Amino acid sequence: MLAMLALIYWQTVVYATQQTDETIDAEITGLAEQYRQRGLAGLVAVINERSKPERGSSMLYLLTDQRQNPLAGNLSRWPDLEVQADGWMRFQLSDDGRRKGGPHIAQATSFVLAGGVQLLVGRDLSEVTAFRNRIVAALASSGALMLVLGLIGGIVLSRRALARIETINRTSDRIMAGEFGRRIPLKGSGDEFDRLAQNLNAMLDQIERLMAGMRQVTDNIAHDLRSPLGRLRSRIEVALIEPPSTERYREVLQQTIGEADHLLATFTALLDIAEAEAGSPRGQMVPLDLASFARDLADLYEPVAEEKGLRLTIETGPGPIEIRGDRHMLSRAIANLVENAVKYTPAGGTIAVKVAGDGGMARLTVADDGPGIPAEERERVFDRFYRLEASRTTEGNGLGLSLARAVVRLHGGTITLEDNGPGLVAVVSLPLAPEAG
Ligand SMILES: Nc1ncnc2c1ncn2[C@@H]1O[C@H](COP(=O)(O)OP(=O)(O)OP(=O)(O)O)[C@@H](O)[C@H]1O
Ligand SMILES: [Mg+2]
After folding, report:
1. Is it the case that residue 97 has pLDDT exceeding 50?
2. What number of helices (H) and strands (E) belong to the chain?
3. Disulfide-capable partner of 368 in 121, 242, 345, 379 (CB 3.0 to 4.6 Å)?
């Protein structure tokens, strides 16, 4: 703002002052020309003509002889001249009745012409001064106005910004105080504050969803552990009511150990899932060949499948399929897929395990021709403790697929269930190990 005002001042006042200098210079050149052509008499005539008051000119002239007696001009006497640093002379012009407004400053320059005649040419600066004063006054008042408006604008704008931040603060205070459902109100203008509020709201929604998920899991755990514990307790109670018999006690204790083992296995599985989901493998990630890994696993389950009247085939291609992984965790995850296929496929069925590598990913599939899983349930079976209605009679906790997914994700891979028409195919994709060397 200051720079702009300075520029305006420069463009007007300084320009006007320069104009004065130039006018006087031009006048001198003109008069010198007259003197050369028409002599002293001609010069006197021209000056008298130009000094006539009715011309209303602000130019000042004075022509005197050697003794400073006026010959022509509109100044009555030779002023007390004082040469300034810029080469111009300035003097007070007293009010001679012809000019109004009291004494004012004039600017002039003087010469001695041939023959001792002295010439003074100047200009009354009252107009220039008045002009400058008006400009300075106008600049000062507009500067003051801009300052006031700028201040008001600044205050209003910052107030508005602070008010929005205050709203966010108030809302977060209430959320911290326990109103978890509360959200930051939006203005709908789509500005930065709205976007900030939107992001914070989305974050709160996400946290709420995660918390609901956690609550669901803990509820499920509590519910699913209650029934085996209840069974365990009533079995012991019944044994105590019955007439004492070492034989019977032994039998009940053995059953109790079985139940306790089952509970322990459930807890172990839950802890394993939690650990895998936390993203920290207990063992080391080592290079391993998924093809031979799957062949070993198939060898292990071959007798179990055969016993149930199932055929288990394995197809891996000739070469090794190198990945990096935690051997123990991966074998638990993949074993569960084979186990599920064996468990849920009725006698006479076929289970096919295949391993292939393509496009930077290793692909392991376990396909069966059993009852399969309806499309709308294929995601839910990955939830902890979730089992299909039809499987209630078979052994199991509903934790196997949760563990498999957590482990595969820990290895940077994905696991999905697809239709095998009929049956189910579990597809595991794991990143191939980067080529060594
Ligand atoms: N190959 C399959 N064919 C049909 N249904 C399956 C198959 N695999 C899984 N399911 C269904 O998905 C549910 C969840 O499987 P998951 O492996 O998580 O638990 P589970 O086998 O019941 O118990 P766990 O593996 O903990 O012993 C199973 O209860 C079953 O209903
Ligand atoms: Mg299972």
Report:
1. no
2. 8, 12
3. 345
Q: Which fold has domain 2-131?
A: Beta-Lactamase (3.30.450)
Is CATH 3.30.565.10 what the domain over 286-431 is classified as, yes or no? yes
**Atom 4, ligand 1: which residue's CA is nearest?**
372
Q: Ligand 1: does its nearest atom lie under 6 Å from the Cβ of 385?
A: no
Cα–Cα distance for residue pair 213/210, rounded to 1 Å = 5
pLDDT digits (tens, 9 = 90+) for 10-62: 888 888 888 888 988 898 888 888 888 988 888 889 888 888 877 777 888 88
Binding site membership of 396 for ligand 1 (Cβ less than 6 Å): yes
Candidates 380, 298, 391, 386; CA nearest to 346 is 391
pLDDT band at 281 (very low <50, low <70, confident <90, very high): low
- Determine the Cα–Cα distance for residues 71 and 16; give it in Å rounded to an integer: 31
83-97, 141-155, 229-243, 285-299: the lowest-pLDDT one: 83-97
Structure tokens at 327: 């051997």
Distance, C-alpha 263 to centroid of its chain: 48
Q: Alpha-carbon dihedral of residues 241, 242, 246, 252, nearest 10 degrees? A: -70
CA of 402 to the centre of ligand 2 (A): 9
Average pLDDT (93-109) is 67
Identify whether the C-beta of residue 366 lies closer than 8 Å to the C-beta of residue 337: yes
Residues of the chain with CATH 1.10.287: 192-278
DSSP 16-34: HHHHHHHHHHHHHHHHHHH
Atom of ligand 1 nearest to the CA of 401: 18
The pLDDT of residue 314 is above 90: yes
- C-alpha span between 437 and 429 (Å, rounded): 24
Residues of the chain with CATH 3.30.450: 2-131
Domain 192-278 CATH (choose: 3.40.1180, 1.10.10, 1.10.287, 1.20.1420): 1.10.287
- CA–centroid distance, residue 313 to ligand 1 (Å): 20
DSSP state of 83: B
Q: pTM of this prediction?
A: 0.60
